[in-house]
Amino acid sequence: MKVTVLGANSAFSVGDFKDAVPVDKLQAMVPELTKKIGKSGWSTRKISNYLKSYFEEHKENLYSSAWQSNFLIEFDQRNIRGDKDSPFRLVLDFGSDVRHALASQGLDFKDIDAYYVSHPHDDHIGGVEGIALKTFFNPFFTRKKSNWLGGENIIDKITYKAARGQLYKVPKDAKPIMYGHRDILEALWKAAEPGLLTLQQVREVSLETYFNPMQMVENEPLTFKDKKRTWRAYIVLSMHVVSGDSTMPSYGLMFETEDTIVFFPTDTQFMVPPQLRGHYMKSDYIFHDTETSPFPSGVHTRLEELKTLPEDLKKKMILYHYDSTVVPDVEEGEFCDVAFSGSTYEF
User: Fold this and answer.
1) Is the overall model pTM greater than 0.85, yes or no?
2) Do 159 and 35 belong together in one domain?
């Protein structure tokens, strides 16, 4: 199982600007610099001053984004897309900037087999409309979808069937899988419905129109093959928000195989519920929500809270979901790792 951190930052991180010189301008500078050095035998100091003045004159602002927290999890098993040269790809949460985060890894929605949704906040579901529509209108998303369409436009095919009183259904193997707890899948559709409800000439539209929803139930795992290993994925309840008399749980994922347990609690308050400690104790690696903003939200685990944990638990934790301007300040070896966008881990 390979885990790539698509994004490691909190919901409202936006990134920053850095000074940079475009390659074409550097290439234009080389002949001139070579000529000057060859003629006058410039000293290292003079070359350095020349480069400094050149950079000041030609530099541009390069935007470096801070992607919201999403993970790409890959298994060496057959994918649903029919691409024999790529693994089965599961994206854990898909915030509003997930298309850009995927692009940073050379991927697009067409390369993803399945999604898992932990809870319905924008930084975890905001990309759903783009995912749904782009895969829906892609006739080549899976080989079976191409065969089902037979070269026909999907809306024409839907309209043709609807005109005969039939409820159209895109085959399950022609759509990406959407995993999640039943309540979260319902909340996902409620949030996405205004943008996804209407399709030209189609009366019956639901989450099933765009995805193959698969409800996950406590203590009933999903199974993924990874070469000779089998990973079992369980949903695990954590508490994200308590607002008045209502709550918003966030359902994490725990991946278990014969010798390794990898846990993604997703967004959670510190040790809420307290049974999380037991899950931490049995896990080998924990990707943990880590708030570093100077303004506490009350709905995320803060770094100073994680620092109070026993040493053996901290050494299992890979920290993410932090403010892009406040990278977790930890002692060397205190935690397993601090994740950044593009960090990869193989288990």
Assistant:
1) yes
2) no
Same domain for 51 and 166: no
- 45 occurs within a structural domain: yes
Structure tokens of 198? 């209407």
Residue 63 lies in a domain: no
Please identify which residue in the block is written with the tokens 């049974």.
275
How is residue 119 written in tokens?
A: 């809870």
Q: Are residues 161 and 94 part of one domain? A: yes
- Domain tally for the chain? 2
Reported as type and span, the H/E element at residue 342 is none
Query: Residue type for 168, please?
Result: Y
pLDDT by residue for the chain (347 residues), tens only, comes to 999 999 999 999 988 888 888 888 888 888 888 887 777 778 888 888 888 888 888 888 888 889 999 999 999 999 999 999 999 999 999 999 999 999 999 999 999 999 999 999 999 999 999 999 999 999 999 999 999 899 988 888 877 665 565 556 788 999 999 999 999 999 999 999 999 998 877 778 999 999 999 999 999 999 999 999 999 999 999 999 998 888 999 999 999 999 999 999 999 999 999 999 999 999 999 999 999 999 999 999 999 999 999 999 999 999 999 999 999 999 999 999 999 999 999 99
SS3 306: helix
Query: For the stretch 282-307, what's the b/e string if a residue is b when 16 or more beta carbons lie within 10 angstroms of its beta carbon?
Result: ebebbbbbbbbbeeeeebbbbbeebe
Domain that holds residue 43: 22-58
Domain containing 338 — which CATH number? 3.60.15.10
Peptide bond into 273 cis (omega under 30): yes
CA atoms within 13 A on the CB side of 30: 6
Tell me, yes or no, whether 156 and 214 share the same domain: yes
Task: Identify whether residues 157 and 197 lie together within a single domain.
Answer: yes
Contacts of residue 81, defined as CB under 8 A and 6 or more positions apart, other chains included, come to 110, 111, 113, 141, 142, 143
Buried b (16+ CB within 10 A) or exposed e, 93-116: bbbbbbbebbeeeebebebbbbbb
77 with 45, same domain?
no
Pair 132, 277 in one domain: yes
